[in-house]
Design a protein that fits this description.
- The structure is a single chain.
- The protein is an alpha/beta fold and 750 residues long.
- Among the domains are: 148 residues, Response regulator (Rossmann fold, 3-Layer(aba) Sandwich); 87 residues, no CATH class; 101 residues, Helix Hairpins, CATH 1.10.287; 48 residues.
- Helices cover 44% and strands 13% of the residues.
- The strands form seven sheets. Strands 3-2-4-5-6-8-9-10 form an eight-stranded mixed β-sheet. Strands 17, 19, 20, 21 and 22 form a five-stranded mixed β-sheet that branches.
- Helix 13 crosses helix 14, helix 13 packs antiparallel against helix 15 and helix 15 packs antiparallel against helix 23.
- The chain starts with 18 loop residues before the first strand and ends in a 6-residue tail after the last helix.
- The C terminus is likely disordered.
- Belongs to the glutamate-gated ion channel (TC 1.A.10.1) family.
- Keywords: Cell membrane, Disulfide bond, Glycoprotein, Ion channel, Ion transport, Ligand-gated ion channel, Membrane, Postsynaptic cell membrane, Receptor, Synapse, Transmembrane, Transmembrane helix, Transport.
Length: 750
C-alpha cells in the first residue's frame, strides 16, 4: 500500500501494490483544468524539484508562462515576477518551502491584494500564515471542512482520551487521511475474503504472501464505508484513477471541484452548481427503464397503484435517493429493452435512463453516463445436474487407481508385516505366561492376523492384537499414518459426493470455448454480445462464432436465457450475462451455479443525453451515496435480504482424490516399510549373534540355522534358546540342540 506521489514510469507490471495517491497523469490534467478555471492570462511557476515539473507539465504548455526553480537565491527569483509585472504565481513545493516563499514575498511586498497564489501541495491547508491580503488558492484531495472528516477526528480524540489528546483537523496531513482510507479498505477486503480464502501462517523469512494477490484484487472491487478521499478505483498497475480535487480560497471556502471520472465537464464552480440546483428543483425529469429483476420490478399490487408507486427494485430505490439528494421530481416510464432505453435517451425523449445499463464505448457515443453505481463483469450461469442414485456412488470421492493401490497395499503390507514379525525377536512370545521358563516361543502373526490388522486399520476399526517388535511396530505405525490421511480425506469428500453429481467443470468463462459438450449463448445485440463480437482474443472469437452459428442459443432478453438454463435438465446449456444479474438468480434458485471469476470488469451507470446540464449534480448524488455506503446496503437488501426461499446449503462436490494428491502419503508409507524391513533384518542379525555366542557356535553356522528356520513360514513356534543354553554346555549338546531345533521345526505345536 502506497500513499505518496509516484511518476507513471515508476509502476511495474510485476508490482502487487495499490497507490492511494492520485495517478500523476490524471493529477496533472486536474491541476491544469483547475488553473484554467481561474482565467489567468499569464503566471509564474515556482517548483522545488523535477517531480514538480511532472505534476505541472500540462500547465507548462500555457503560452504565457515563466518557470523558475526555487533555490537559495529566493529573493532574486521572486523579483522576476516584479520585473515582468506578473501577479499570478503557482508554487509546487514542500510545506516548509511554502512558508519560506511567503516570508520572502512579504519582505518584497508581494502579498498585497494584487497578487494571486496557487499552491499545489495537498498539505497547504496545514499552513499557519498571517492574514495576508493576497488571494491564496489551495488544492486538496479531501474536504477538511466536511462533516465525515470532522467526525473521524472526534473518533480519534475519543480513542486518545486517556492521553488528553486534542487534534486540530486543519493540521492533519493528506498522507494520514490516505492511510486511513487504505487501512479501512484493507480491513473490509480481508473480512470479506476470510470465509473463502485460507490464510496460511507466515514467518519473518517469507518473501511472498501467497494470499496477497487475492487481497489486492478484492480491494480493487470493494467499496469503503465513509471514505474521506472518496471511493478508490485502480487500473491494472495499481494507479488510482478515481479522485476529486477541491479548490479552496484563503477564507477556507470551497470555490470549485474537479473529478477524474468527469473530465469532460471539467471544473465545477460552486456558483454554477448552486444555479443548476435551483433550475433542477423546478424540473420534473422523465426516467425511462425496462422490467428486469431486481433492478426494476412491478409490485404485486401494482394494478391498484399509480405513478412511481407501481415500481420497486434496486434502480427504483437508487433514483429515489438521487432525487432526494439533488432535490428534483421524476416520472418513471417503461420501454422495451435496454437498447430502447439508450435510443429514447439519445433522442432526448427522456432525461434519464436506469436499469442494468452497462457502460460501453458504443453506448457512450450515443449518450453520457453518470459515475458508476455498480461494478460487475461477464460470467456464466449453468444448471446443477439433478442427483442420480447409484449403488456405487460411495466410490466417487476417490479415483479408481487409488482404490486399486489401497487394496493392493493392504495385502502387500500384511505380507511385509508377516516377514518382519518373523524376524523381530520381540514378536516371539511365551505362549504360557505362568511358565517362567517355557520350552518354546510362539509367533501369533500368521497371514490371517496380519490381514486382519491391515484391513481393520484402513477402516478405522483397529485390531485386538498388536505387534511388539520394534520393526513390526514401525511398519504398523506407518500403515496407521497412511490410513489416517486416506480415510479422513475420503470422509471429508464423501458427503458432497452423496448429494451432488459432477458435471463438466466450468471454472472460468474461457472453459466454455475449450469444450464442445455444452452450448452457450447470450442476449442478442446486448453489451455482452458486442464484447464477444469485437474481441481480439482467440478464445472469445471462437465463442462468438459458436454462439452465432448454433441455432437457438441467442436470446431476446435475460429472462428467457435463465429459463432455458433451467429447462435443460442435463446441464447442456449455459448463459452469459452480467455477473450481478446472475448473482441475484443464484441466490434464489439452488439449481443454478455460476462461475465466480468474471471477465471484462465493467460498470452500470445512469444514461442521460449528451452534454446534459445536470450531469454533475447526478454524479455528486451518486458519490454521496457511495461514500455513505448506501449503494452496498441497497445491493445487499435486494440481492440477499429480499429472498422468499431459504439459502442453499448444498456444497459443491470436491474434486476426486488422485494419486498425485496422495503421492506424499504413499511415499511415507513406502519409506516406513523399507525402514521396518531394514530394522527387522538388523534385529535378526543381532539375534543370530546372540545365538552364536550363547551356544558357542560360529556366527555363520548360527545364521544358517536361524535363516533356514525363518524361511519355514508354516512354523509358528520354536524352542527357547535361553532354556537350551541352561540345559547344555558342550559341543555335543549344541549339535543335539541343532538337531532338535531342526526336528522341532517339522512338527506343529499346539
Amino acid at each position: 500500500i502506497q500513499t505518496h506521489w509516484l511518476p507513471t514510469n515508476s509502476y511495474l507490471d510485476t508490482m502487487i501494490s495499490l497507490n492511494f495517491y492520485p495517478d500523476s497523469e490524471l493529477l496533472a490534467l486536474g491541476l491544469k483544468q483547475l488553473v484554467d478555471s481561474l482565467s489567468w492570462e499569464s503566471f509564474l511557476i515556482l517548483y522545488q524539484n523535477r517531480g514538480g515539473l511532472v505534476r505541472l507539465k500540462q500547465i507548462i504548455r500555457h503560452k504565457n508562462v515563466m518557470i523558475e526553480r526555487i533555490q537559495d537565491d529566493l529573493p532574486i527569483t521572486l523579483k522576476t515576477a516584479i520585473n515582468y509585472k506578473i501577479t499570478n504565481i503557482i508554487i509546487d513545493g514542500d510545506v516548509e518551502i511554502l512558508v519560506e516563499v511567503f516570508k520572502k514575498a512579504a519582505e518584497l511586498d508581494m502579498v498585497s491584494a494584487d497578487y494571486n497564489y496557487f499552491l499545489t501541495n495537498f498539505d497547504s491547508h496545514t499552513l499557519k500564515l498571517p492574514d495576508y491580503e493576497c488571494n491564496i488558492t489551495t488544492v486538496s484531495i479531501f474536504d477538511p471542512y466536511e462533516q465525515t472528516f470532522r467526525d473521524l477526528v472526534k473518533f480519534w480524540e475519543r480513542n486518545e482520551r486517556r492521553n488528553r489528546l486534542t487534534i486540530d483537523p486543519m493540521l492533519i496531513k493528506t498522507e494520514t487521511v490516505l492511510m486511513h482510507d487504505a487501512m479501512s479498505l484493507l480491513i473490509e477486503s480481508v473480512n470479506s475474503l476470510k470465509e473463502n480464502v485460507l490464510f496460511n501462517r507466515l514467518t519473518c523469512d517469507d518473501n511472498r504472501f501467497e494470499t496477497g494477490p487475492d487481497i489486492v484484487a478484492n480491494m480493487k472491487d470493494n467499496f469503503m464505508n465513509f471514505p474521506i478521499t472518496g471511493q478508490s478505483e485502480f487500473d491494472p498497475l495499481g494507479k488510482r484513477t478515481n479522485f476529486t480535487l477541491f479548490l479552496f480560497n484563503n477564507r477556507n471556502k470551497m470555490i470549485a471541484s474537479w473529478n477524474s471520472k468527469d473530465t469532460q465537464n471539467g471544473v465545477i464552480l460552486k456558483s454554477d452548481t448552486e444555479e443548476l440546483m435551483r433550475n433542477l428543483q423546478r424540473s420534473t425529469l422523465i426516467v425511462v427503464t425496462s422490467l428486469q429483476r431486481p433492478y426494476v420490478m412491478l409490485k404485486p399490487n401494482h394494478e391498484d397503484l399509480i405513478g412511481n408507486q407501481r415500481f420497486e427494485g434496486y434502480c427504483v430505490d437508487l433514483i429515489k435517493k438521487v432525487a432526494k439528494i439533488a432535490n428534483f421530481t421524476y416520472q418513471i416510464h417503461l420501454v422495451g429493452i435496454n437498447r430502447q432505453i439508450i435510443d429514447t435517451v439519445s433522442a432526448k425523449h427522456a432525461d434519464l435512463g436506469i436499469g442494468d445499463l452497462t457502460v460501453t464505448p458504443e453506448r457512450e457515443e450515443m449518450v453520457d453516463f453518470s459515475l458508476p453505481f455498480m461494478r460487475l463483469g461477464i460470467t456464466v450461469i449453468y444448471r446443477k445436474l439433478d442427483v442420480e442414485d447409484s449403488t456405487w456412488k460411495f466410490l466417487d470421492p476417490i479415483t479408481k487407481d487409488v482404490w486399486m493401490y489401497m487394496g493392493t497395499l493392504t495385502i502387500v503390507l500384511a505380507i511385509v508385516l508377516y516377514f518382519v514379525s518373523r524376524m523381530a525377536p520381540g514378536d516371539w512370545e511365551n505362549p504360557h505366561p505362568c511358565d517362567q521358563s517355557p520350552r518354546v516361543l510362539k509367533n501369533i502373526w500368521n497371514i490371517k492376523n496380519c490381514l486382519w490388522l491391515t484391513s481393520g486399520s484402513i477402516m478405522n476399526q483397529g485390531c485386538d492384537i498388536l505387534p511388539k517388535g520394534i520393526s513390526s511396530r514401525l511398519v504398523t505405525s506407518m500403515w496407521w499414518f497412511f490410513a489416517l490421511i486416506v480415510t479422513q480425506s475420503y470422509i471429508a469428500s464423501l458427503a458432497a459426493f452423496l448429494t451432488n453429481k459432477k458435471s463438466l467443470v466450468i471454472k472460468e468463462v474461457e472453459d466454455l470455448g475449450r469444450q464442445n459438450k455444452i452450448v452457450y449463448g447470450t442476449v442478442e445485440n446486448s453489451a455482452t454480445y458486442n464484447f464477444f463480437q469485437s474481441s481480439n482474443n482467440t478464445i472469445y472469437q471462437k465463442m462468438f462464432e459458436s454462439m452465432t452459428t448454433t441455432v437457438g442459443v441467442l436470446q431476446q432478453d435475460v429472462r428467457t436465457g435463465f429459463q432455458d438454463v433451467l429447462d435443460t435438465v442435463d446441464g447442456s446449456y449455459a448463459f452469459l450475462t452480467e455477473s450481478t444479474t446472475i448473482e441475484y438468480e443464484v441466490e434464489r434458485n439452488c439449481k443454478f451455479r455460476m462461475v465466480k471469476n468474471p471477465i471484462l470488469r465493467r460498470t452500470f451507470g445512469i444514461a442521460m443525453p449528451r452534454n446534459y446540464p445536470y450531469r454533475s449534480l447526478i454524479n455528486d448524488a451518486i458519490l454521496h451515496l457511495e461514500e455513505d455506503g448506501e449503494l452496498m446496503k441497497m445491493k445487499d437488501y435486494w440481492w440477499k435480504q429480499r429472498k422468499e426461499n431459504r439459502p442453499c446449503t448444498e456444497q459443491e462436490p470436491g474434486p476426486e482424490l488422485t494419486i498425485e494428491q496422495l503421492r506424499g502419503v504413499f511415499l511415507i508409507l513406502a519409506c516406513g516399510c523399507i525402514g521396518a524391513l531394514i530394522l527387522g533384518f538388523l534385529e535378526f542379525l543381532y539375534s543370530v549373534y546372540n545365538v552364536s555366542v550363547e551356544n558357542h557356535i560360529s556366527y555363520l553356522e548360527a545364521l544358517k540355522i536361524e535363516g533356514l528356520f525363518a524361511l519355514k513360514i508354516w512354523v509358528s513356534q520354536k524352542r527357547n534358546k535361553q532354556l537350551n543354553n541352561k540345559n547344555s554346555g558342550s559341543k555335543t549338546s549344541i549339535i543335539n540342540n541343532k538337531s532338535t531345533n531342526s526336528l522341532d521345526s517339522n512338527n506343529k505345536w499346539g
